[in-house]
């Protein structure tokens, strides 16, 4: 039996965290029904070489190299394009979101097209996050909701699961390469009628995170500006039609949730 689910981990200068992360992921997914993609986004440390070393002897792991640092959105797009499975799940390389949520997310894909982790809905647990980071997160999410019209409380949590065919469609239609790719992907999903389930998660800030709250929030806020226009329903459907892409039937209409 081939792989049934795909795990995608984008990485940029993650040599310090990669050994622990990969060990935990392999422990969580010990069987051959899971394929793991490590996408090196032009790291300048030894992430790529270390990933190759750690993957030796495990045929489930594939390493994808981007020629330069293109951004998290570009890294995930490259990973999704390599998948063929029924379920695609991606997570940050520092495993800020607990892997205890994996099984629940995959089960929810039987009822929803997209399942996203959230640090901002009742039931979520956030650990070791600075007051500044929390303030920037709340401010960004308010701006995101206003500018995109998404009924989502936390678009930026790096723990998301998709039906495989839906992931491949949405990422092929996406344009943003950096942090605003999350709201862009979700907007495209809504435009095509896909349902989104926002689930509380346990999230812990990493000492080695490459995210800089002020810098990245400002950059992402600027990137938000054209998203609502680019992801309007008529344009998204037109792009899919002209590209000859197969548009999977939603499990349930996003309008129902």
Quickly list its features.
globular; alpha/beta; 257 residues; Spore Coat Polysaccharide Biosynthesis Protein SpsA, Chain A; two-stranded parallel ribbon
Can you characterise this structure?
- With 257 residues, the protein is α/β, with parallel strands linked by helices.
- The chain has two domains: 1-95, Spore Coat Polysaccharide Biosynthesis Protein SpsA, Chain A (Alpha-Beta Complex), CATH 3.90.550.10; 96-244, Spore Coat Polysaccharide Biosynthesis Protein SpsA, Chain A (Alpha-Beta Complex).
- Helix content is 40%, strand content 18%.
- The chain contains ten helices and nine strands.
- The strands form two sheets. The chain has a seven-stranded mixed beta sheet, sandwiched between helices. It has a two-stranded parallel sheet with strand order 6-9.
- Helix 2 links the parallel strand 2 (34-41) and strand 3.
- It is globular.
- It starts with a strand and ends in a 15-residue tail after the last helix.
- The mean pLDDT is 92.
How is the largest sheet built, in terms of strand order? 3-2-1-4-7-5-8
Give the class from helix and strand content and strand pairing: alpha/beta
Oligomer: single chain
SSE run: EHEHEHEHEEHEHHEEHHH
Looking at the structure, what is the overall shape?
globular
Strand content: 15-25%
CATH-assigned homologous superfamily of the largest domain: Spore Coat Polysaccharide Biosynthesis Protein SpsA, Chain A
The largest β sheet comes out as: 7 strands, mixed
Q: Tell me the name of the CATH class of the largest domain.
A: Alpha Beta
What is CATH's topology name of the largest domain? Spore Coat Polysaccharide Biosynthesis Protein SpsA, Chain A
Whole-number radius of gyration?
Answer: 17 Å
- Low-confidence parts: none
Distance between the termini: 35 Å
The assigned CATH architecture of the largest domain is: Alpha-Beta Complex
Question: How many domains comprise the coordinates?
Answer: 2
Helix tally equals: 10
Number of strands: 9
Average residue pLDDT:
92
């Amino acid at each position: 039996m081939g792989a049934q689910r795909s795990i995608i981990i984008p990485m940029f200068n993650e040599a310090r965290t990669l050994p622990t992360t990969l060990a935990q992921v392999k422990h969580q997914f010990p069987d051959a029904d899971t394929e793991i993609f490590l996408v090196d986004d032009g790291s300048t440390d030894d992430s790529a070489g270390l990933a190759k070393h750690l993957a030796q002897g495990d045929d489930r792991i594939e390493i994808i190299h981007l020629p330069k640092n293109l951004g998290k959105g570009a890294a995930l797009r490259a990973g999704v394009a390599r998948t063929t499975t029924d379920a695609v799940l991606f997570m940050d390389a520092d495993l800020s979101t607990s892997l205890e949520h994996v099984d629940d997310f995959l089960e929810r894909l039987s009822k929803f097209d997209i399942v996203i982790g959230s640090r901002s809905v009742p039931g979520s647990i956030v650990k070791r996050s600075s007051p500044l980071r929390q303030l920037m997160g709340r401010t960004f999410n308010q701006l995101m909701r206003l500018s995109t019209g998404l009924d989502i409380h936390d678009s930026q949590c790096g723990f998301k699961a998709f039906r495989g065919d839906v992931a491949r469609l949405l990422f092929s239609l996406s344009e943003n390469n950096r942090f605003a790719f999350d709201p862009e992907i979700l907007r495209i999903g809504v435009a095509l009628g896909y349902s989104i389930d926002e689930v509380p998660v346990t999230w812990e800030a990493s000492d080695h995170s490459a995210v800089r709250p002020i810098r990245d929030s400002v950059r992402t806020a600027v990137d938000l500006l054209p998203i609502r226009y680019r992801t309007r329903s008529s344009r998204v459907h037109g792009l899919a039609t002209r590209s000859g892409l197969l548009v999977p039937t939603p499990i349930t209409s996003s309008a129902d949730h």
